[in-house]
User: Fold this.
Amino acid sequence: MLQAGDLDALFAPKSIAVIGATNRQGSVGRAVFTNILLNEYTGTVYPVNPRDRSISGVRSYPSIHDLPESVDLAVVVVPAAVVPAVTEDCGKKGVRSLIVISAGFKEVGQDGAALEHQVASLAQKYSMRMVGPNCLGTINTDPAVRLNASFASRMPLEGSIAFASQSGALGEAVIDYASGEGIGFSKFISVGNKADVNENDILEYLQADARTKVILLYIEDIVDGRKFVDTVTRVTEKKPIIAVKAGVSPEGAKAAASHTGALAGSDEAYNAILKQSGSSGSSPSSTCSTTHEPSQNNRFPGETE
Amino acid sequence: MLQAGDLDALFAPKSIAVIGATNRQGSVGRAVFTNILLNEYTGTVYPVNPRDRSISGVRSYPSIHDLPESVDLAVVVVPAAVVPAVTEDCGKKGVRSLIVISAGFKEVGQDGAALEHQVASLAQKYSMRMVGPNCLGTINTDPAVRLNASFASRMPLEGSIAFASQSGALGEAVIDYASGEGIGFSKFISVGNKADVNENDILEYLQADARTKVILLYIEDIVDGRKFVDTVTRVTEKKPIIAVKAGVSPEGAKAAASHTGALAGSDEAYNAILKQSGSSGSSPSSTCSTTHEPSQNNRFPGETE
Assistant:
């Protein structure tokens, strides 16, 4: 496994390929490419499309192999069945990281889960960190980067809150609401199915991110509970984490399962995890959030010095 | 001389290089490049800049020679002194046409006029048609092209009026006003110093342009009066021309001279030319316009059948 520091290729790439960029109005491939282009990204973005000569006025390349250089990040917006081949191509070209936006993986059943496993294995084979699949993408408002590698309709304001969401739709709604209120973000990460990069990787990365003062998590499931406890314990020594856990009610759990293929754990288990790691464990499926300030680290809510 | 049909490379290029594109806020090089990029140009645009790796997120090339292909059009936004060398480079690369936006030519005096002559000769040597120098650029609202190769702050609405203006500022003001009134344009051409492409070339081109129903001219001087008479006579057989002549009063003539280096002719001479060619010849320096419908061709105003 690479070090957490390598997530820089995901969040602050110098160059990007959008594989599946297109001129088709209303398509995700168009939204992602123009979001990178129109939000004044400071690096270089290349559209990859086997048919079109140019995408949004920018010279396009038939495949990742045809690019004049390798890239730090490939954003993948092609049908699920093609993602393994594209991942292999990226690995061979020396691409450093992936955001797989395409859906049709674990969240659609067993065949999708097998495909997802195949993609994750290929990413690992070529030492590429991967966000997704089945995600909205990522955003970095740092003026040195200015990257909206998502199909969110709006670039959030610059701010000091980092927000990792297991729901792309909820993430976008929060960005829209926050923009209206004048609230900004340092980073936004739609984690999707978390086939590789999960909440633990992101927390590690955000702990070291100078532009992030507060971390906001929207969780439907946790990949590795024990590691999560350790990570949160460590991260909250530096900055507060606000965690919102969904899928507590049977209906909520069902919605979460159909959403990203997550199995929502029992409310009690999450409460225990969050308490153990220094966050209070309240977790209704709606919006209750619990904050944990570094100065209160490792004490249960209500406990005094 | 090339045929008028070759102006297609200027108005409907498949590929463009912006030489002098930059990331610098408030610069003309940035405005021109982003105007092409953000108005959904259907071709491919390449930024050329010797320092920056990318311009507005798009891979940049140190010189025109480094482009992966030749281009139909080069838009030149570099200091006047460098324009001859850039023109020669474009010629050698096989570029088909030029828009020279840079100022500092005939309008600044004798040295500028010599430089302009040098640039025009080089363009002719390589059979490149050239708009400018000292111009705002051109616009084509045709959905098959969608090109704003200017530093006008606004892309006009689509419409059937073609507008050729010898004043960039007046052209931009008219576009702004027309947009507010819901009036659209087929083409906009800021002719600048008319070192090569002049009103006669443009009238020939617009006569054959299926998207143009009416031609609007704002003139400060006419390059070749006899040819203008012939051209207007021929063009008005197909579509009406509205001509506005500036620089009639001594003050107006002085303003026109300092503007594009044009020598405004006498009011009487222009009246005679416009009358002879079938337009009525009223030409105050402000806004009086005269229309000429094809059905009234070659008759003086007030004349009956």
Notes: The first helix of chain A runs from residue 8 to 11. The longest strand of chain A covers residues 158-165. Residues 1-5, 280-305 of chain A have pLDDT under 50 and may be disordered.
